[in-house]
Specification:
Blueprint (H helix, E strand, L loop, with lengths): L20 H7 L3 H20 L2 H23 L4 E8 L2 E3 L3 E10 L7 E6 L10 E4 L7 E9 L4 E5 L2 E6 L6 E5 L4 E6 L10 E2 L11 E2 L11 E2 L11 H7 L3 E2 L4 E2 L3 E6 L14 H18 L3 E6 L20 H14 L9 H7 L6 E6 L4 H9 L6 E7 L1 H6 L5 H12 L3 E5 L5 H8 L21 E2 L16 E4 L1
Parallel strand pairs: 2-10, 16-17, 16-18, 18-19, 19-20
Antiparallel strand pairs: 1-3, 1-22, 3-6, 4-5, 4-8, 7-10, 8-9, 11-21, 12-15, 13-14
Length: 480
């Protein structure tokens, strides 16, 4: 494997110890072995009927050869360990990952011809097969192959199968390793431009929210003097009150909160496949999450079911205590397996957002009827700024213009204070992101359905970059 990569742990061994008996060995006869056996028996019967001793010798040779090969292969004790590595273990849809296999001969005798076959889901491509020549005692062989999927999800790799064959090709025995690995295919993410979103409060933090810092940082509450504190911060009134030197604490800005809402209702989307409206919404959600985390926001992923990413934090937000890459990886792993919900409305998500000031809200809605558009409009009340991307999934199937009903839903959202943008079929998210900021790029169909409908003070964001992750080799293995 790659130098410096951690070694994989060995799984349960699978040794050819004769537990299946001679019947198992005979069951491993290849087409060639069965043909030899049938031809030998036929020749022996003909020799007995015709009284031809030479023909009888040929028949016995043809019969005995596959039987001897099966017996020798059956009694062979090979101790072979296998290790598998993924680089990386998390890849965007449409990208490739490399799988490395390593076979170690741990016995004191050389192996015969070995054939490796790794089980992979059909969406990752055909099953890879490799033929290995004789492996010396203590020897090692390494092979690799690539997997690629245009569909997000979590795909198991394994178990690995090892086929032992005799030199004449008369018999093959198959042994399987129990260990497997997991390849996570996350949605594609697009780097978003640093724009000023319409309606966002100016300055760092939502409405300049403040928090009290811990010991050693500025805060608003007086505390006891510590060595190294600036004497200009001595709070004389508190010093006289408590009888000891006290210093004042000053406010620290709190990181801005951002909630990204993904509408996953099955009734809100039509069509399937990597180019469907739902897959676009999932990919766009991932892009916004990564973009906001890299801009220093604490971000929460919310769905129409009212659930957020597990383990992101006590309040569902990630990025405040976690590393940005870890937070992004956690949310992207969730989006890799997200599917349509059975819900019919957005009331659960509305109840979650009603709990407090959510800062910036970015929502991706599917088809909205009049009732759900009203529920979505009420979500704006608890947010500092709200941006909605509304998909008309019917146009993704026909390629037509945005329906008039969608225009009415956009108008209702804008009247409630949303910055609402209609998403045309296959519309590029970076250009729509600019459109939400009030810009009018030429590459996106604008007109009535594509105009940002609200204005206000704005906040600028820094440059964006795409998120990536990798995994070192060696997460599983086994021994045969």
């Amino acid at each position: 494997m790659a130098p410096g990569s951690p070694a994989a742990g060995e799984g349960p061994s699978s040794r050819d110890e004769g537990r299946g008996g001679l019947r198992t060995a005979l069951g491993g006869l290849t087409t060639r072995g069965r043909s030899f056996l049938a031809a030998g028996v036929a020749a022996a019967v003909c020799a007995y009927v015709l009284g031809q001793s030479d023909l009888l010798r040929v028949g016995l040779l043809l019969t005995v050869l596959p039987l001897i090969s099966a017996a020798v292969l059956h009694r062979t004790r090979y101790r072979v360990s296998a290790r598998r590595g993924l680089t990386p273990s998390r890849v965007p849809a449409g990208s490739e990952a490399r799988v490395r296999l390593r076979m170690d001969n741990m016995s004191r005798m050389p192996t015969g011809l070995l054939m490796l076959q790794d089980h992979v889901p059909y969406v990752l491509g055909p099953r890879p097969r490799f033929v290995l020549d004789r492996v010396e005692p203590g020897g090692r062989r390494e092979v690799s192959y690539r997997v690629r999927s245009d569909l997000r999800g979590c795909y198991p790799l394994g178990p690995l199968q090892l086929r032992l064959g005799d030199p004449f090709g008369m018999c093959e025995l198959t042994r399987s390793f129990s260990a497997a690995d997991l390849l996570t295919v996350i949605p594609r993410t697009d780097p978003l431009p640093p724009v000023r979103l319409v309606g966002e409060a100016a300055g760092h933090g939502d409405g300049r929210q403040r928090s009290l810092a811990l010991a050693g940082d500025d805060d608003i509450i007086p505390r006891a003097y510590r060595h190294g504190d600036d004497l200009r911060r001595v709070h004389w009134r508190s010093t006289a009150r408590y009888g000891e030197l006290m210093v004042r604490r000053e406010e620290q800005p709190q990181r801005t909160r951002c909630t990204v809402l993904l509408d996953t209702r099955g009734i809100a989307y039509q069509g399937t496949g990597p180019d469907s409206a739902f897959e676009w919404a999932v990919s766009a959600t991932a892009s916004v999450l990564v973009h906001m985390l890299e801009r220093g926001f604490t971000v929460r992923l919310l769905t129409d079911t009212g659930s957020s990413v597990p383990g992101a934090g006590a309040d569902g937000y990630a990025g405040s205590t976690q590393d940005t890459a870890d937070s992004a990886g956690l949310m992207l792993d969730t989006l890799a397996v997200v599917d349509h919900s059975d819900g019919a409305g957005l009331s659960r998500a509305h109840d979650v957002l009603r709990g407090g000031n959510e800062g910036l809200l970015v929502a991706f809605f599917g088809d909205l009827d009049e009732e759900q558009a009203a529920v979505a409009a009420r979500m704006r009340q608890r947010c500092g700024a709200a941006v909605a991307f509304v998909l008309d999934s019917g146009t993704w199937l026909t390629g037509g213009a945005v329906a008039g009903a969608v225009e009415e839903r956009l108008r209702a959202l804008r009247e409630a204070g949303w910055t609402a943008v209609a998403v045309p079929a296959g519309g590029p998210l970076p250009e729509l992101w600019r459109l939400a900021a009030g810009e009018r790029p030429d590459s996106v169909p604008t007109g009535p359905s594509g105009t940002a409908g609200s204005s206000g003070s704005s906040d600028s964001f820094g440059p964006s970059s795409s998120f990536g992750s990798s995994s070192s080799f060696g997460s599983s293995g086994g021994r045969s």
